[in-house]
Specification:
The complex is a heterodimer of chains A (97) and B (474). Chain A has 97 residues and is mainly alpha-helical. Chain A contains 3 helices and no strands. In chain A, helix 1 crosses helix 2. Chain B folds into 2 domains: 391 residues, Amidase signature (AS) domain (Amidase signature (AS) enzymes), CATH 3.90.1300.10; 66 residues, no CATH class. Helix content of chain B is 38%, strand content 13%. In chain B, helix 2 runs antiparallel to helix 3, helix 7 runs antiparallel to helix 15 and helix 9 packs across helix 12. Chain B is globular, with a radius of gyration of 21 Å. Classes of the chains: A mainly alpha (97), B alpha/beta (474). At the A-B interface, helix 1 and helix 2 of A face helix 9, helix 10, helix 11, helix 12 and helix 14 of B.
């Protein structure tokens, strides 16, 4: 499979990334090279193979749902690019999308 | 030069009053300053380290001290330490200060280790040469025109250049073992889940592991023992019993070594092959049983690895949106634009490349063809190891096909760069532990590394055989 420049534009939209024309060109080339390399996996017949999503296949881990101390509002806001006393501030959302 | 070979010697010297811990920390700080050109550190905690040294030296004298009292440790800058910067060597986290401490680091601190600083690495641990750091390349201490390997390049270089006793790195596809090989030090990637990932910035959650670099096997074993064990804050950490790794290093059980032909094929440098062949010969002379094994899906590891890790990365890195923390672009007219602009200005090229690939393989219509397919091949690769470990306890391979390459040599070709991890990604796909053992130098004086792999949770045999090789073979 291969990707076109238009596909790459679409993927960048999904990934919330923005590229200029030159970058789009270069990512299209890179992605195509990588995708043609990984096409190698199609040499293998995997019809009856169970996918492996986790290397150590254990059972589910449960714990009691108990309220425990967490970080404070002050700590949570410490690294915020923009905030007021208790909220993160972002550009206006209503009417902008 | 350091007046000790490992931590137990250092501890004795301090205890007997023959070594001042404060002077020892001052020595490391002055070496860090002198070797600033290596660019191994993103931040150095001079004041804190000296205060700790004074306090811990007292504790050692009174006999009330932790198991790592006075061990000087550098930490890869993807692990959080409360109120210290955690940048992941990315512009997007340049001004970020952690609000809690990673469990792995806390366990070291609780045992009276001294954290001297945070080491440079590839951005978000994505890379094989440390050329993807937003704060510049790390140079290889053996030859400053060459890369230290990656992604934990700063951690490997710091130990190799004697800027600390031990360091922590992370290994998602070889990021501890490959730089250890390029810099000529020991580096251990534990079993997935052996060490809590709480406080580690996520790259690929089903692959990420934390592990130590050291100049000797004893120190690796000791630090691994402290780092290991269940942590409530990471549900994937295992509650399996942690063996006393450091107390049981003598080879007292039969350990068979498997050699897989797939790891000695074309592409491997003749000098690397010769070095490892000579070790295999010496092992035979020492009556270690060598068994030929096969890992037939080896050639599919890199493809499988890049599909799955980029998929996980694209999801994990979605959190960097400029809203709650991290870099926010100055120009943003609306919310989606703020996300895009902040991410595009904040991430480096390789990180973007991987987010793009990961987003593509997870997108509607391609999920089954790529992501699902790779998960199935991951099973085949793990099955290979399950079968191999029925007949051997340890598998011996080169760590990388070649020695440290020149800065800039592989930056223009992503696939060529990815292939430098061809022998290491399999351990992360299968969740098994692996170690780099420095075996010698090539004709240019560059370190050569050999890898040992063991089955999940069998770090003990891995360390025993490494200790035997370190003391009887090398």
């Amino acid at each position: 499979m291969s990707v076109t420049r238009k596909d790459v534009e679409y993927i960048s939209e999904l990934a919330r990334l923005k590229f200029n024309s030159e970058e789009l060109e270069s990512f299209t080339k890179d992605l195509n090279e990588i995708l043609s390399y990984v096409d190698k996996l199609n040499e293998l017949n995997t019809d009856d193979i169970e996918p492996l999503s986790h290397p150590v296949e254990g059972v589910n881990v449960f714990r009691d749902d108990v309220v425990k101390p967490s970080i404070t509002t002050e700590e949570a806001l410490k690294n915020a690019p923009d905030n007021d006393e208790s909220f993160f501030k972002v550009p206006k959302v209503i009417g902008s999308i | 030069m350091l007046p000790y070979k490992n931590y137990s010697e250092k501890f004795l010297l301090i205890k007997e009053g023959k070594l001042s811990l404060v002077e020892n920390v001052k020595f490391f700080l002055s070496e860090i300053e002198k070797k600033k050109n290596l660019n191994a550190f993103n931040s150095v905690f001079s004041d804190d380290a000296l205060i700790d040294a004074k306090r811990i030296e007292e504790k050692i004298k009174t006999g009330e001290h932790g198991k790592l009292a006075g061990l000087v440790i550098a930490v890869k800058d993807v692990l959080s330490i409360k109120d210290k910067p955690t940048t992941c060597s990315s512009k997007i986290l340049k001004d970020f200060n952690a609000i809690y401490t990673a469990t792995a680091v806390q366990r070291l601190i609780d045992e009276d280790a001294i954290i001297i600083g945070k080491t440079n690495c590839d951005e978000f641990a994505m890379g094989s040469s440390n050329e993807n750091s937003a704060f510049g390349n790390v140079l290889n201490p053996t030859d400053i025109t060459r890369v230290p390997g990656g992604s934990s390049g700063g951690s490997a270089a710091a130990v190799a250049a004697q800027l600390c006793d031990v360091s922590l790195g992370t290994d998602t596809g070889g990021s501890i073992r490959q730089p250890a090989s390029f810099c000529g030090v020991y580096g251990l990637k534990p079993t997935y889940g052996r060490i809590s990932r709480f406080g580690l910035t996520a790259f690929a959650s089903s692959f990420d592991t934390i592990g130590p670099f050291a100049t000797n096997v004893e120190d690796l074993a000791l630090v691994l023992e402290i780092l290991s064990g269940k942590d409530e804050l990471d549900s994937t950490s295992t509650d399996k019993v942690v063996p006393k790794f450091s107390k049981n290093l003598t080879l007292d059980n039969k350990i068979r070594i498997g050699i897989a032909k797939e790891y000695f094929g074309k592409g491997i440098s003749p000098e690397v092959k010769d070095s490892i062949d000579s070790i295999i010969e010496k092992l035979k002379e020492n009556n270690i049983e060598i068994v030929e094994i096969s890992l037939p899906h080896t050639e599919y590891t890199i493809a499988t690895y890049y599909i799955l890790t980029t998929a996980e990365a694209s999801s994990n890195l979605a959190r960097y949106d400029g809203a709650r923390y991290g870099y926010r672009a100055a120009q943003n007219s609306n919310l989606p634009d703020m996300y895009k602009q902040s991410r595009s200005e904040g991430f480096g090229k390789e990180v973007k490349r991987r987010i793009m690939l990961g987003t593509y393989v997870l997108s509607a219509g391609y999920y089954d063809a790529y992501y699902r397919k790779a998960q199935k091949v991951r099973r085949l690769i793990k099955n290979d190891f399950d079968n191999a470990f029925k007949n051997v306890e340890v598998i011996l391979t080169p760590t990388s096909p070649f020695t440290a390459f020149k800065i800039g040599e592989k930056t223009s070709d992503p696939i060529e760069m990815y292939l430098s991890d061809i022998f290491t990604t399999s351990a992360n796909l299968a969740g098994i532990p692996g170690i780099n053992i420095p075996t010698g130098k090539n004709s240019e004086g560059l370190p050569i590394g050999m890898q040992l792999l063991a089955n999940q949770f069998n770090e003990m045999d891995l360390l025993k055989m490494s200790y035997f090789i370190e003391n009887k073979i090398l």
